[in-house]
Specification:
78 residues, alpha+beta, four-stranded antiparallel β-sheet, 4 strands
Length: 78
């Protein structure tokens, strides 16, 4: 996953799936939003801002871990 910028508790990442709504729910996340570089491209730039001690990278990693857990739980039920 390419990281375009990380500084001062702010992270901008180019992603190919939507996770920002799950990130917004985390404690310590002050902002999570995205913009689409072009409407015909299936990707977007995700921006995450956090409060210390949580870093934007940690917030993203926790969200991805949670989504993986949710998918594993769903897989068990199917």
């Amino acid at each position: 996953m390419p990281v375009s910028q990380e500084q001062n508790l702010e992270l901008k990442v180019l992603l190919y799936w939507q996770t920002f709504s799950h990130i917004q729910k985390q404690k310590g996340v002050t902002f999570a939003g995205y913009k689409m570089p072009h409407p015909l491209e299936h990707k977007f730039v995700l921006k995450i801002q956090t409060e210390k001690p949580l870093t934007p990278s940690q917030a993203l990693e926790k969200t991805v871990d949670r989504l993986i857990g949710d998918l594993a739980s769903l897989e068990e039920r199917v």
